[in-house]
Write a structure and sequence with these properties.
Chain C: This is Sarcosine oxidase subunit gamma. Chain C: InterPro entries: SoxG, TrmE/GcvT-like. The complex is a heterotrimer of chains A (96), B (994) and C (188). With 994 residues, chain B is of the alpha+beta class. In chain B, 22% of the residues lie in helices and 28% in strands. Chain B is built from 24 helices and 50 strands. The relative contact order of chain B is 0.07. The chains are: A mainly beta (96), B alpha+beta (994), C alpha+beta (188). Chains in contact: A-B, A-C, B-C. Chains B and C meet through strand 8, strand 15, strand 38 and helix 22 of B and helix 1, strand 2, strand 8 and helix 4 of C.
Chain lengths: 96, 994, 188
């Protein structure tokens, strides 16, 4: 079971959280302006890196807040967690 | 007293407290402190089981949890039978019944032993080679026979009557293993005041110190040092010392699972739980898990009476039991010399055979000879004599090239063998640490850590006592952030050995049965064959030969197997690598894993405030998510069909009362609440008046229906949202996600009120008349309170949000009241309805009534791939809205393409035939197989109000097929149906506005 | 007066407790009828209705008759005597004024269970995965978390013996109460 540092509550066990998949995929401001291909890309295409991955997590059974995390998918080590909307301080090689 | 092999003194046992248990029905007497294995040996019982594949007689190999052979079924009373217990770790106690396994008709005379004679058939991979032909034999002959013969032990049949507990625990330092290194680590950590948990699998902490009778630590006998260490740990409040507790799984972020055995060793367990699962989250972990001795691989090395050398020493020193009177030690290293000395000291006849040449040996050789023990250096073991008990060892001189000299028989009744030591790196490996191969000790040892842990002592390949203590101390101190280090003095430990894979032999290879994996009956020859047949990866060799795949996971066998593979491939051991260690380290009961989550605590059973009323009025219940909902209310003698027919009629003709409390409810509040609703639902919300309701439909971003429900505007900045019962949590999470991550600028707050409001649905033409006398502050007239309106007031003096809504097509109200008042209001409404023949109805009737009206149920008519247009609800989409969640997807090419499945009604030619939900639909039943499936039935009922069966279905281009015929599969063949509009009752919708 | 009348009639989901069913020294006592409010506000200011809004997340203030637990950056759970059920939301609303906020009555949604005794934390840890040690979870701590398969809010109050309030949703209360009772039996 992972130990995840909620930005508001500190270290909490994984069971209190829900993972929301890849982070930093903003909903387009005007979806209607997107081509079918662009929209399909936005909806369905996600990175699946071996290494550092930026993910969305929600402390569902805690403060209820969504936040982002950098997790190494090989070691499961968290490099950092940071508020939704913010940028991580570590760099990632992940670009969708 | 019996126990002819019990020594007269010594050991950590209490000879004044006898214990009696049975083994295969025979009473065995031991003493307090015995394991079942030591008590059996005290009585000269060596034959304790038959092997898995060849049914060879097997005895006790080891004293610890690595025991591969002595597997017993342990019976602690009715419902308390566990198979595959290692005799070496089951504590002897009064009343225990133990049984050997894997034989018929008896342990002594086993028909299955014929397999041993057929061993040429049962070579590695025999499964894949032997049972290939003819193909049809697999189902009818091979598999049934194999199933009957396979398996180890018998699973218990009765429910487990024991209780099991679970505990989450946190500590700064978790120490696994209470041998010298673990104790030193725990002491060092404990002295810092940090929280320490020390877990050890044995009944008594101490590890190897428990059988250390000659060594001294810091000038005191080892046992005294142990007592002092335990007393200190015991006196510290910051230490939790857990004996009988196995750390079996090392998971992410220092989450370590421990299995504590609480009552199995007690004759009268009382009410305590049998076992407890500890889920420990540790800041730092110290692994002091010790090491396992390797057997020597020689012909018939599995004969009862052949033990590991250190295990002989343990039985002598810790249990005061002589495993034999004439013992030959066979070894390729120094540690067995200590065992030989102790055996000699116990007055037994002892000799020792060492594969190493004279000049390879250390001071141990002089010491042994000085004690008057015959030592044959440079000798190999050709094989063992004896069947159900070893009677002698055939040895021969062997040079380094493996050439053997003249055979010599050493008569004996016990052999102590030692092929060196293997650090127990299982937990380290589970923690994803990287192992490194250490050539000097021929072992894989912990290398790079992946988590906050460190290993110490034998687990790290350190075998000298003083070094183990120092290493443990350093690990404990470092783990607790202390700079203090202690020095230890201790008697030197005899270490050092020559790695040997299979003992040199000149015997006919065809006749050699030299076992590597005792539990899965894998011989050196099997492994050689696998390599010859082309297997290179150790993972493949493992699966092909099954070596290391038994319940012991190859604790005693893995290194020998690896070594043999490396030898056959003429490569080095590290290049072969090791197989993956997986939890659990030793077998764990299902009870421990399940813990208290049984019966009423298996899952929360959610009930409404009206549940007890429904129960006392005869309701039958169904599970909806975690909820128990009243399904129907049968009167005496009524079937489901009868009750539902009566309930359906009652609602349409009079009035029915229904518990809708499980509906999800969310209070959406804030200045931007309407804008938020506008973005999430397909409907328009900005202009909805306060006090009015709207049926809302919500999509996921992919355009498919997520949920639906009626929403009321309570105030300009407040909406009372309802969701489906099963969708409540999902919808709230969906809303929160968008609110927090996409539109954090919106000033909106979401609060679940599902359980604040109980909901009493009153449906039918008489509904208004029933509640009129009970309602306060609300004008119920149709003009003042039309369909799809919501008013706040009181009912029975209780505040209510009264909705005029209908999921039946009748005049209806949904009375929201605070939950703790719901039962009183329900009873009052029910009483007020009695003159009108009010009828309580359940979810089945609710389903039928809504289907008569063609109302969809999310999750029944939809399945996550259904758009609003597919179910005929595209008219609800607010055309003027530029965007809402899912809107863009509604013009995706595959969503606008022809051929999508659309919601239609179906009526069968035979009005009495009720189709099966999920049944497939085709246009031409005569077409060749595979037929083209057009869709499936989503809902199907007998409709009492239509006097016939009705069904809803999703059918490709269904709306264009109105009036046409299709065919639906039924258990009796195809049934012809006509496609109709899905509204079967009151298609003009007049009744709802009554 | 209707309101005073109906409040006395609240039918709570958990019956009256046995003193110490498990003989474990751990007392598990369902709370009586209380008023509960969920307060949501983003820029709260220091206080409202006399309740502090500037305390750290995962802390509780006040006493048994009137307490406020901060569960998140913009979320508070308030408990009070039943008599305050109407006055308290009104006072909150008045003090918060034009600040965007939500005050939602959840008195009937939440059920309280008090767990006390020297080994109360051990019983809670049968299902709660948090570190309940003195350093990590001192008196005055409050958080949403899990107990077995149910979501709870766990509040630790000050007192001579460890005293915890477990709050759960109404329909989970039978499970939570049963879980705690079983846990107390196994807390030895």
């Amino acid at each position: 079971m992972l130990l995840i540092a909620c930005p508001h509550c500190g270290n909490r066990p994984e069971t209190e959280f829900r993972c929301g998949g890849q982070a930093h995929i903003a909903r387009p401001a005007d979806p209607a302006a997107l081509s079918d291909e662009q929209w399909a890309e936005h909806l369905f295409v996600r990175a699946n890196p071996r290494g550092v991955h930026a993910e969305r997590w929600c402390h569902a059974h805690g403060c209820g807040r969504w936040f982002n995390a950098l997790r190494d998918t090989v070691s499961d080590r968290f490099l950092e967690t940071y508020p939704a909307g913010a940028q991580p301080s570590h760099s990632t090689d992940v670009r969708a | 007293m019996a126990q002819p092999f019990r020594l007269s003194r010594g050991g950590r046992i209490d000879r004044t407290r006898p214990v009696r248990f049975t083994f295969n029905g025979r009473t065995v007497e031991g003493v307090h402190g015995d394991s079942v294995a030591s008590a059996l040996l005290a009585n000269g019982i060596h034959l304790v089981g038959r092997s898995f594949k060849y049914h060879r007689p097997r005895g006790i190999l080891s004293h610890g949890s690595d025991e591969p052979s002595a597997l017993l079924s342990v019976d602690r009373g009715p419902g308390r039978i566990d198979p595959n217990n290692r005799a070496s770790v089951v504590e002897a106690r009064d009343g225990l019944k133990t049984l050997s396994q894997n034989h018929w008709p008896s342990l002594e005379h086993d028909i299955g032993a014929i397999n041993d004679l057929l061993s040429p058939v049962f070579v590695a991979g025999f499964y894949y080679k032997t049972f290939m032909w003819p193909k049809k034999f697999w189902d009818r002959v091979y598999e049934p026979v194999i199933r009957a013969a396979a398996g180890l032990g018998k699973a218990p049949a009765a429910p487990d009557p024991d209780r099991y507990a679970n505990r989450h625990a946190h500590c700064e330092v978790l120490v696994v293993g209470a041998g010298p290194a673990g104790l030193a680590a725990a002491l060092a950590a404990a002295r810092t005041g940090k929280r320490v948990i020390l877990a050890d699998e044995g009944p008594e902490p101490g590890g190897a110190l428990l059988h250390e009778t000659s060594a001294e630590i810091d000038g005191r006998p080892a046992a005294e040092w142990l007592d002092g260490a335990l007393a200190e740990l015991d006196s510290r409040e910051n230490v939790i010392l857990l004996p009988r507790t196995t750390a079996f799984g090392y998971y992410n972020h220092n989450h370590v699972a421990l299995a504590e055995r609480i009552t199995d060793h007690l004759p009268n367990p009382g009410t305590a739980p049998r076992e407890r699962l500890w889920q420990v989250r540790a800041g730092e972990v110290v692994l002091a898990t010790g090491s396992h001795e390797r057997p020597l691989v020689f012909s018939d090395n599995d004969r009862p009476g052949i033990l590991l050398a250190e295990s002989v020493r343990v039985f002598l020193n810790r249990y005061g039991v002589a495993p034999g009177r004439r013992i030959v030690f066979a070894t390729s290293g120094a540690s067995a010399y200590t065992a030989a000395l102790d055996a000699k000291g116990a007055g037994l006849a002892v000799s020792l055979v060492d594969l190493r040449a004279e000049d390879e040996c250390g001071p141990e050789l002089v010491e042994l000879r000085a004690a008057g023990i015959e030592v044959l250096t440079g000798h190999t073991v050709i094989g063992a004599k004896g069947g159900k008990r070893v009677t002698g060892l055939v040895v021969a001189p062997a040079d380094r090239a493996g050439r053997c000299g003249a055979h010599r028989l050493l008569p004996c009744d016990c052999v102590g063998m030692s092929g060196g030591w293997t650090p127990a790196v299982h937990l380290f490996s589970q923690s994803r640490g990287k192992l490194g191969y250490e050539a000097t000790i021929d072992a894989f040892v912990p290398g790079t850590s992946a988590q906050a842990e460190r290993s110490a002592g034998a687990a790290k390949g350190t075998y000298d006592l003083a070094a183990c203590l120092a290493e443990g101390d350093a690990a404990g101190a470092a783990a607790s952030g202390s700079a203090e280090r202690r020095r230890f003095t201790a008697s030197p430990t005899l270490t050092g050995f020559r790695p040997v894979r299979a003992m040199p032999t000149d015997a006919d290879p065809a006749k050699v049965r030299a076992f590597v994996d005792f539990q899965n009956d894998v011989t050196a020859k099997d492994i050689g064959l696998a390599v010859r047949e082309g297997f290179r990866s150790i993972e493949h060799v493992k699966r092909y030969t099954t070596t290391g795949m038994a319940t012991d996971q190859g604790k005693t066998s893995n290194m020998n197997a690896l070594g043999i593979v490396a030898g056959k491939l003429d490569t080095t051991l590290p290049s072969v690598g090791t197989t993956t260690f997986r939890p659990p380290y030793t077998p764990v009961t299902f009870g421990t894993l399940v813990g208290p989550a049984r019966h009423a605590l298996f899952d929360p059973i959610r009930t409404t405030p009206i549940h007890d009323w429904a129960e006392s009025h005869g309701a039958t219940f169904e599970n909806v998510a975690l909820w128990r909902r009243a399904w129907y209310f049968p009167k005496a003698g009524e079937t489901l069909h009868d009750a539902v027919a009566r309930e359906c009629k009652a609602v349409r003709e009079g009035v029915g009362i229904f518990d809708a409390s499980t509906l999800g409810k969310i209070e959406v509040v804030g200045p931007d609440a309407a804008e938020f609703m506008n973005r999430l639902y397909i409907n328009p919300w900005l202009k909805l008046e306060v006090g009015r309701c709207r049926y809302g439909l919500m999509l996921k971003e992919d355009g498919y229906i997520l949920d639906d429900g009626v929403v009321a505007r309570v105030a300009p900045d407040c909406f009372h949202v309802t969701t489906t019962t099963g969708g409540a949590a999902r919808v709230l999470a969906h809303m929160e996600d968008y609110l927090q991550t996409e539109w954090p600028d919106l000033r909106v707050f979401l609060t679940s009120t599902t359980e604040q409001w109980a909901v009493i649905a009153l449906q039918g033409p008489k509904a208004r008349a029933v509640i009129a006398p009970l309602v306060g502050g609300i004008d119920l007239s149709p003009e003042a309170f039309p369909h799809m309106a919501m008013r706040s007031g009181t009912i029975c003096g209780v505040p209510t949000r009264l909705f005029r809504v209908s999921f039946t097509g009748e005049l209806g109200f949904e009375i929201n009241v605070p939950s703790d008042h719901a039962l009183a209001v329900w009873e009052a409404v029910h009483a007020a309805g009695e003159p009108y023949g009010i009828t309580p109805y359940g979810t089945e009737t609710m389903h039928v009534l809504r289907a008569e009206k063609g109302y969809i149920i999310v999750g029944q008519e939809t399945d996550g791939t259904v758009t609003p247009d597919d179910v005929g609800l595209s008219g609800m989409i607010a055309k003027a809205k530029k965007d809402f969640v899912g809107k863009r997807s509604l013009v995706r090419p595959d969503v606008v393409a022809a051929g999508r499945k659309q919601l239609v009604g179906l009526v069968t030619d035979n009005p009495k035939l009720v189709l099966e939900e999920g049944a497939q639909i085709v246009d031409d039943p005569g077409q060749p197989i595979p037929m083209r499936m057009l869709g499936h039935v989503t809902s199907s009922y007998w409709s009492p109000n239509c006097g016939r069966s009705i069904a809803m279905a999703l059918v490709a281009d269904g709306r264009a097929l109105q009036g046409g015929s299709l065919h639906v599969t039924t258990p009796e063949g195809f049934a012809r149906v006509t496609v109709v509009d899905p509204v079967f009752f009151d298609p003009k919708g007049k009744r709802i506005h009554a | 007066m209707l309101e005073a009348l109906y409040r006395t009639a609240r039918a709570l989901p958990l019956g009256r407790p046995a003193a110490d069913p498990a003989g474990s020294g751990i007392l598990i006592r369902p709370a009586g009828a209380e008023a509960h409010v969920s307060l949501r506000v983003r820029d709260p200011g220091p206080s409202a209705a006399g309740l502090p809004l500037d305390r750290p997340i995962n802390t509780v203030s006040g006493d048994a008759r009137r307490w406020i637990a901060r569960l998140g950056p913009d979320e508070w759970l308030i408990g009070s005597d039943e008599a305050e059920a109407d006055a308290l939301p009104a006072a909150l609303a008045a003090d918060l004024g034009e600040r965007p906020h939500a005050i939602v009555d959840i008195s009937h949604r939440n059920v309280g269970i008090d767990v006390s005794g020297a080994r109360a934390a051990v019983a809670l840890n049968a299902g709660c995965p948090l570190d309940l040690g003195e350093a990590a979870f001192p008196a005055g701590t409050a958080t949403r978390t899990l107990l077995g398969k149910a979501e709870i809010v766990l509040i630790r109050r000050p007192g001579p013996v460890p005293l915890y309030r477990v709050e759960c949703w109404r329909s989970f209360s039978t499970y939570v109460h049963g879980f705690l009772t079983e846990a107390a039996r196994s807390a030895g």
